[in-house]
Amino acid sequence: MSGNPSILGKEISPKADVGAIVEKLLGAYADEWVAGYYYMLTAELVQGPLSGVVAEQFRREAEEEITKHAAAIASRLAELGVEPPREFSRLWEISPCKYPPLPEDPYDVDGFIIAAVKAEACAVKAYRELYDLTHGVDPVTEELAEELLADEVRHRTELMSLLTRDGMERLRRELEG
Ligand SMILES: [Fe+2]
Ligand SMILES: [Fe+2]
User: Fold this and answer.
1) Is CB count within 10 Å lower at the N or C end of the chain?
2) Domain spanning 18-176, CATH architecture
3) Residue extents of the structural domains in the chain
4) pLDDT in tens, 23-39
């Protein structure tokens, strides 16, 4: 946080690794934009009898990733005197989760959902790590990590509930393999 007024970051214990916390926040910010984009894209691409319900769920989650999660992370970064990247391409570069490849076939709705479940699982891991990093030393970021962690667990559950029985089997196999 060099170059910023020394009044910033006083809510953080000197024991905290502020550099690591900021890096995690920036990575999570990028992940939210990447997930938001792919969820919107998925909503446009999916075809078939269940595509309406699935598209609606993906749009809802995309909105939450961008307008709630990315926005909340940007606010926390601002409190620490850090600006998000101004180059859009930088978001993809610094995104730790990026996004699993989308299925070629737009009728492979399970395939789109499986990609999203994997993205949510990566986000859950990232917020769990941010929580561990901030627990007891940066209560403001800790509370944010806790809230976003709960949201991503909910997203993962909501998405998994859209899988067909075959899709659930496929997810199980892919996660084991
Ligand atoms: Fe999110
Ligand atoms: Fe999510």
Assistant:
1) C
2) Up-down Bundle (1.20)
3) 18-176
4) 999 999 999 999 999 99
